[in-house]
Amino acid sequence: MCYKKIKNLINDSINNNLLILILEKINDPRNLGSCLRTAYSFNVNYIIITNFNTCSINKTVIKTSCGYSKYLKIIKINNINKILNILKKNNIYIIGSSLNTNNNIFDINFKILNSIAIIIGSENNGISNKSIKNCNILIKIPMFNKVNSLNLSVATGIFLFEIIRQKLN
């Protein structure tokens, strides 16, 4: 796998509205592969994955992504907070997914936002507290029938769908 550099993303963001998916501490290769497949289907421009506590892009990830992972621009990073600060300095709006917020996905007008980065964290812990502090806003998917969370790849699909749905209308 040939990873891209953050400078590629920053250069692309100068004249383009980007959609960036940040996956923090994803341990299950099937979840990672599913997120990559979904990202490809929603035309995500860049995927950022954390170097620590994230599974590598292995045969299972590639198979689960149906091979689409090879078409994605993936950046592997060591320090997520440093990257989030760089993105914010380059006018990229940082959205964190969290169960601990009153803002739901339908409260946000994604159409007025230019470049967007959405952070999805592990099913066990969600996104880190440091990442939460670096977000412009936290949002959640409204849940019913005593269900308090979704599989992270399902949640990723819902978040990306709503962003694209709004931007296309």
Distance between the termini: 35 Å
Q: Using the coordinates above, name the CATH class.
A: Alpha Beta
The gyration radius over C-alpha positions equals 15 Å
Number of domains: 1
The 3D shape can be described as globular
Structural class: alpha/beta
InterPro entries: Alpha/beta_knot_MTases, rRNA_MeTrfase_TrmH, SpoU_MeTrfase, tRNA_m1G_MTases_N
Protein name: tRNA/rRNA methyltransferase SpoU type domain-containing protein
Keywords: Methyltransferase, Transferase
Organism: endosymbiont of Metamasius hemipterus
Short characterization:
It comes from endosymbiont of Metamasius hemipterus. The chain is an alpha/beta fold and 169 residues long.
Tell me what you see in this structure:
The protein is an alpha/beta fold and 169 residues long. The chain has one domain: Alpha/beta knot. It contains 6 helices and 6 strands. Helix 2 packs parallel to helix 6. The longest helix is centred in the C-terminal third of the chain and has 17 residues. The N and C termini lie far apart (35 Å).
